[in-house]
From TrEMBL:
<comment type="similarity">
    <text>Belongs to the short-chain dehydrogenases/reductases (SDR) family.</text>
</comment>
<dbReference type="InterPro" id="IPR020904">
    <property type="entry name" value="Sc_DH/Rdtase_CS"/>
</dbReference>
<dbReference type="GO" id="GO:0018449">
    <property type="term" value="F:1-phenylethanol dehydrogenase activity"/>
</dbReference>
<keyword id="KW-0560">Oxidoreductase</keyword>
<dbReference type="InterPro" id="IPR036291">
    <property type="entry name" value="NAD(P)-bd_dom_sf"/>
</dbReference>
<dbReference type="InterPro" id="IPR002347">
    <property type="entry name" value="SDR_fam"/>
</dbReference>
<protein>
    <submittedName>
        <fullName>(S)-1-Phenylethanol dehydrogenase</fullName>
        <ecNumber>1.1.1.311</ecNumber>
    </submittedName>
</protein>
<dbReference type="Pfam" id="PF00106">
    <property type="entry name" value="adh_short"/>
</dbReference>
Length: 247
């Protein structure tokens, strides 16, 4: 199964900057007919609307507010591709007293937000032929980085949910892609002190288009991610992507 973005209607959360903005622009460049720019503040995508016209539709989604997700699903009834890019990162290690609040916040956005997106948009995708769901996870979903321990934990949970969505949505012909970038040149990377090793967001956006076309479940787009992906590939193929329930 593969998914071609040409002529498709897409939705990208966190589309106003960083990876999300580049994903939106790449989808349009690859022939998507329309992209819903799903953001907390719709005024933040006015520049994209001016540049691309009716092909970009502002849409309010705050992953920490389920009501906005439900309302968006009712408005964007023609969506065939959902890219859940938005996420949050707090710098907190397990011994930091602030780690509990950091983890609660990251779980609410990075995990609960994904689940709310899936529950709201899976029926939409099914109605429109199945389509595809892309979840931006991280190399931190596989390897915990102590200075970002709570973020890593939330992304590990997000990755686990993404695996379940792959299995559950297969029956409705919805392709699921789990994306695991390393440091990418965004405000989030800057705040985490990873600017020097960061690669451009285009490696993620281009990788998503290619991975969807190939029908892959995992994408490790950049240099660090590829190193992780190569080491992880055997486990991914034989355990994560295998149907262990068949014996």
């Amino acid at each position: 199964m593969g998914f071609d973005v040409q002529g498709k209607v897409a939705l990208v959360t966190g589309a106003n900057r960083g990876i999300g903005k580049v994903i939106l622009e790449t989808l349009l460049a690859e022939g998507a007919s329309k992209v819903y720019a799903a953001v907390r503040d719709t005024s933040s995508v006015e520049g994209l609307v001016k540049e691309h016209g009716e092909k970009v539709v502002p849409l309010e989604i705050d992953l920490s507010k389920p009501a906005t997700i439900a309302a968006a699903a009712k408005q964007a009834e023609d969506v065939e591709l959902v890219v859940n890019n938005a996420g949050v990162l707090k710098t907190a290690d397990p011994l930091d007293p602030a780690a509990f609040d950091a983890l609660d916040f990251e779980m609410k956005v990075n995990v609960h937000g994904l689940m709310h997106m899936a529950q709201a948009f899976a029926p939409v995708l099914k109605t429109n032929g199945g389509g595809a769901l892309v979840q931006l996870n991280s190399v931190a979903s596989i390897k915990n980085f102590a200075d970002f321990a709570t973020y890593s934990a939330s992304k590990a949970a997000s990755y686990s949910i993404t695996q379940a969505l792959r299995d559950k949505l297969a029956d409705q012909n919805t392709q699921v892609l789990s994306v695991h970038p390393g440091p990418i040149g965004t405000d989030m990377a800057d705040s985490a002190g990873l600017t020097e090793m960061a690669e451009p967001p285009s490696v993620v956006a281009d990788g998503i288009v290619a991975a969807l076309a190939d029908g892959r479940f995992h994408l490790f787009p950049d240099t660090m991610a590829k190193q992780v992906g190569e080491a992880y590939s055997g486990f991914a193929e034989n355990i994560v992507e295998a149907n262990l329930m068949e014996g």
